[in-house]
Write a structure and sequence with these properties.
alpha/beta, Rossmann fold, transferase, Aspartate/ornithine carbamoyltransferase carbamoyl-P binding domain-containing protein
């Protein structure tokens, strides 16, 4: 019997694993083609104990387009976990009894530890404090699709990396391809955590902390990070962050290279009510790949699901 594969964290996968998922995603990334013969009868169980728009719907769409279906808990409302009557382990064990694969979202559950006793493959749909592993996978696919490469990218980040699970996950993923990261965290307290830097540097990545104006014209891909922090951040840090954060718009994006691309985090609101970018101006720029990422998302999740289930895709 084959060992169960999981995507509970980015480091579950090697570079070769990611290459295979991206190969599959290219096959599924064909509008209007029927793939319902690929995984008929397969069931995706959702255990989403935090709100989700894009991740949950993308996973649901992926399994349906593969010919399967889904069940489970697509939102926290009414779940036994959220009212304190059942543990996460017990709930996931029960979902596993009626599903072939699980997609999980929870603010602090350690999915990597649970994976050691899981009976079906697991997908991290933003679980725990460190990662949105599935989100990073989708981001990386669209970045590579737009740029025509994955290796040795220059990646710019503006915002609270420390409190962004997608940003921490994409850092770990692109580090495996030798990326150089240029980071403006607005205030030092929101810079990339040292333990993630050390992990990434061990994979060949490099880090440069600098004001965004000093690197925006040099990067291949630029990310404006979502402005809503994880629970527990120091209110004084948030106040300082909001004071110094500059909303990105047309004048800023004009500084990007003609062949570069950029995206902005969603949801795009900040704690002071502002939005991280002028979305009208951002969306009007042909280099903005935020919505391209969302459109590609289902194909990437189809690729991930089939890979974890050991379904051959040629």
């Amino acid at each position: 019997m084959n060992k169960i594969k999981h995507f509970s964290q980015v480091n579950d996968f090697t570079k070769e694993d990611f290459d295979e998922v991206f190969r599959r995603a290219k096959i599924f990334d064909v509008k209007g083609k029927d793939f319902t013969h690929v995984a008929p009868g397969k069931v995706l169980g959702l255990g989403f104990f935090q709100e989700s728009t894009r991740t949950a719907s993308g996973l649901q769409s992926a399994i349906i387009r593969l010919g399967g279906g889904w069940n489970g808990i697509p939102s926290p409302a009414g779940s036994y976990v959220n009212i304190g009557e059942e543990s996460m382990d017990d709930t996931l064990n029960s979902l596993s009894d009626s599903a072939d694969i699980l997609g999980i979202r929870h603010k602090n559950f350690d999915l990597a530890t649970y994976s050691k006793k899981a009976t079906v493959p697991l997908i991290n749909g933003m679980c725990g404090g460190d990662e949105h592993s599935a989100g990073a996978l989708g981001m990386a696919y669209t970045i590579a699709k737009k740029m025509g490469k994955m290796d040795n990218l220059k990646v710019g980040m503006y915002g609270m990396v420390k409190s962004s699970r997608p940003s921490k996950a994409i850092t770990r993923l692109l580090a495996k391809y030798g990326a150089t990261f240029y980071v403006d965290p607005v205030i030092p307290e929101f810079n990339t955590p040292d333990y993630i830097k050390k992990e990434a540097e061990a994979s060949g990545a490099k880090f440069i902390t600098a004001p965004v104006k000093d690197f925006i014209g040099e990067v291949d891909y630029f990310s404006v990070i979502e402005g809503l922090p994880q629970a527990g951040e120091d209110p004084k840090h948030l106040e300082a962050y909001n004071k110094d954060f500059q909303i990105m718009g047309k004048k800023d994006f004009a500084l990007l290279g003609k062949q570069s691309s950029f995206s902005y985090g969603m949801p795009g609101a900040m704690t002071d009510g502002r939005m991280i970018v002028n979305m009208t101006e951002a969306d009007a720029d042909s280099r903005c790949i935020t919505h391209a990422m969302l459109k590609d998302w289902t194909a990437v999740m189809m690729a991930l699901i089939t890979y974890l289930l050991d379904i051959k895709v040629k």
